[in-house]
Amino acid sequence: MAAHHEPDRSPEQPLECDHCHYPIPGESEDTDDGRFCSTACLEAADDESAMPEPSAYKRIATGVEPLDSVVPNGVPADSFVCVSGDAGTRRSELLTELVWRALERGEPAVVITATTPPTAVLERFFENGWNVLPALEDDRLRLIDCFTHRLSDREDFLEHRSRWIEFVGATAAESIVAIEEPTELRSILTGLNEALGDLEMTETGLVTIDSLDEFEDHHLHEFITETRATVCKARYVPIVAGATAGNELDPGNESIFDGIVDLRLTDHLEPDVRHRQLSVRKLAGAKHLPQWLTYEYEPARGLFVSGPVRDSGQRAPGAPTPRVAQERR
Predict the structure, then answer these.
(1) Contact 328/218 with Cβ under 8 angstroms?
(2) Model pLDDT for residues 92-118, shown as the tens digit of each residue
(3) Is 110 in the same domain as 26?
(4) What are the b/e assignments for 34-66, b being 16+ CB within 10 Å?
(5) pLDDT, average across residues 272-292
(6) Looking at the structure, do residues 260 and 151 belong to the same domain, yes or no?
(7) Percentage of the chain surpassing pLDDT 70?
(8) Does 86 or 67 have the greater pLDDT score?
(9) What's the pLDDT at 158?
């Protein structure tokens, strides 16, 4: 093979394959067109263009300041992450901001809502000064509605909406996927996969689920493992799902998730002041700081770091466990 120019590299910067972009651990396959780690990459490069840089799709900076502060190198894009926290920890605001930051980056997003109607989900963005109407118009935001068909009187709900909510509902109508059997997790999975296909979501965007607590079907464990496989692992689209914290559950069931983010309220930092804190309990394939980070929230700004960082090399006594873990059979 023809000689290949040897670039100046330090020992800390190994040569990278020109197709897969991963370090070359041994002898490279050199051609006039590049340097490759294997015959498979060499042959693939002859048939198609090089793969995108791994950092472009395999790791994301979420744009949510407290989360990015404790995961400095980004969240693996093939992760199913549970955000575990009780009322008052701003769990809903965190999920809303994750979607908004993705839209800001020009990426699509899918929201699965089981605790509130789609118009109320959209109203959370407007309350922050985050206008999602262009994203709806550009077909970059899809809502999987697992709530409305749970209502005993849907007609009464629709009839008494305010003019603004009626306008938002009409504007978002084509972006809402109504799940007529919200207790059938297979129906939800089908709706999700159709939305991902419509939005061409592979190696881009994210999915959020407002609360896993609402899915009480005993097939929930199967639903999570299947979405983790078909969405996160196959498409490199992360899923971030909320769950209520509970201490009575078996911590061994944490293995269902790639990552767990704990949110808690604490008053031990200052007398008579209740602080919100965030910590990453686990995150497969990524560096995360073993710390509790104090955060606060403001409309438009979102969540931000507001106080001291405390070491937490292991889960502190009383740290929450996702309630959804009890569904595993």
Answers:
(1) no
(2) 999 999 999 999 999 999 999 999 999
(3) no
(4) bbbbbeebbebbeeeebbeeeeebebbebebbb
(5) 92
(6) yes
(7) 82
(8) 67
(9) 72
Beta strand segments in the chain, E: 29-31, 34-36, 59-60, 75-76, 80-84, 109-113, 141-145, 176-178, 206-209, 239-243, 245-246, 259-270, 273-283, 291-298, 302-311, 321-322
Residue 255's DSSP bridge partners are none
Backbone angles phi, psi at 198, to 5 degrees: -60, -40
Do 45 and 79 share a domain, yes or no?
A: no
Phi and psi angles of residue 234, each rounded to the nearest 5 degrees, phi first: -85, -40
Q: Which residue has the higher pLDDT, 213 or 67?
A: 67
Q: What is the pLDDT of residues 183-195, one digit of tens each?
A: 888 899 999 999 9
Q: Single out the residue of 72, 146, 82 nearest to residue 110, CA to CA.
A: 146
Q: How far apart are CA 43 and CA 41, in angstroms?
A: 5
135 CB-near residues (< 8 Å, 6+ apart):
103, 109, 141
pLDDT in tens, 120-143: 999 999 999 999 999 999 999 999
CATH number, domain of 299, equals 3.40.50.300
3-state secondary structure 57-107: HCEECCCCHHHHHHCCCCEECCCEEEEECCCCCCHHHHHHHHHHHHHHCCC
Q: Tell me: do 209 and 77 sit in the same domain.
A: yes
The dihedral through the CA atoms of 97, 98, 100, 101 has a sign that is positive
Q: Tokens 């604490």 identify what position?
A: 266
314-329 per-position pLDDT tens digit:
443 334 444 443 333 2
Phi and psi (nearest 5°) for 250?
A: -70, 115
* Pair 153, 254 in one domain: yes
Tokens of residue 234, six digits: 């196959």
Could you tell me if 185 and 75 lie in one domain? yes
Give 165's contacts (C-beta < 8 A, 6+ positions apart): 119, 123
Provide the pLDDT for residue 5: 44
d(CA 222, CA 124): 30
pLDDT of residue 47: 67
Sequence-ordered list of residues with C-beta below 8 angstroms from that of 98, at least 6 positions apart, any chain: 62, 63, 64, 206, 208, 240
